[in-house]
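User: I've been trying to design a sequence by hand for this structure and keep getting stuck. Would you show me what you'd pick, starting by listing the structure so we're on the same page?

Assistant: Good idea, let's start from the same input. This is the structure you sent:
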């Protein structure tokens, strides 16, 4: 089931359709949020959710015997999941509004720029944070800080991920990684995805601080939309619609 909300951007109004959180996904959220990620479920720890915080966040894995599949998610101390910082990297040559202009930490390309060009048959040169819902997942650095490569557990670049924010769920793609320009952080998404979740108060320097967002990644080649995704979409909803069927198939594994 979808619910719709009109988001007033600086250039007009865009109607965003949010998916209601399916029962099995809500059950998964309620099961992992109060749980401790330990043992074989803890893939790698030592990450932060904000500058000046504590290194108590981890990449975790949960297996689902009924489907024979597993999923990767982020978890912090106690009942904390992850927050949502704002990523404005990539192609901003055609900005929807000026909110990414506030960012003091913008890179000119995303991690999978080459893969985006191939998947889109060169229709676009990179992801656009104003349009494409993408998640920053994985940590790459050369300074000795904590790192984690989701590819090591089967997550493919540009694969579809599910994001649960409050009573809404959206799909995005794994579109970028965290670098070494600060502590090894987790919990970040493109401006368009953050706006869909939390409204137009989100901007390049203002995200969602509470650690109550669930990011779910799915391993396997079948999680990658490839050319079936509308990479050349002109707005968030057009792209979101193009990956929803695949996203629905993936979250059905969570039981």
């Amino acid at each position: 089931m979808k619910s719709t909300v009109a988001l007033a951007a600086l250039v007009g109004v865009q109607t965003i359709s949010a998916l209601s959180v399916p029962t099995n996904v809500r059950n998964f959220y309620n099961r992992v949020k109060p749980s401790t990620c330990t043992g074989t479920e803890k893939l790698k720890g030592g990450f932060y959710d904000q500058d000046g915080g504590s290194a108590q966040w981890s990449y975790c894995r949960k297996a689902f015997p009924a489907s024979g599949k597993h999923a990767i998610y982020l978890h912090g101390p106690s009942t904390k999941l992850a927050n949502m910082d704002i990523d404005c990297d990539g192609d901003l040559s055609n900005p929807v509004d000026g909110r990414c202009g506030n960012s003091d930490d913008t890179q000119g390309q995303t991690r999978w720029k080459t893969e985006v060009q191939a998947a889109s048959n060169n229709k676009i040169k990179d992801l656009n944070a104003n349009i494409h819902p993408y998640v920053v997942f994985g940590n790459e650095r050369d300074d000795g800080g904590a790192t984690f490569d989701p590819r090591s557990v089967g997550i493919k670049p540009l694969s579809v991920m599910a994001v649960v924010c409050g009573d809404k769920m959206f799909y995005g793609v794994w579109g970028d990684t965290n670098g070494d320009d600060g502590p090894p952080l987790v919990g970040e998404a493109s401006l368009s995805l953050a706006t869909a979740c939390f409204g137009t108060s989100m901007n390049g320097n203002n995200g969602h601080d509470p650690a109550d967002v669930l990011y779910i990644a799915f391993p396997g080649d079948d999680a990658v939309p490839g050319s079936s995704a509308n990479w050349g979409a002109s707005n968030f909803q057009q792209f979101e619609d193009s990956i929803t069927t695949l996203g629905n198939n993936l979250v059905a594994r969570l039981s």
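That's my pick for every position. To get oriented when you compare it with your attempt: The two ends are 19 Å apart (CA to CA). Confidence is low (pLDDT under 50) at residues 8-13.
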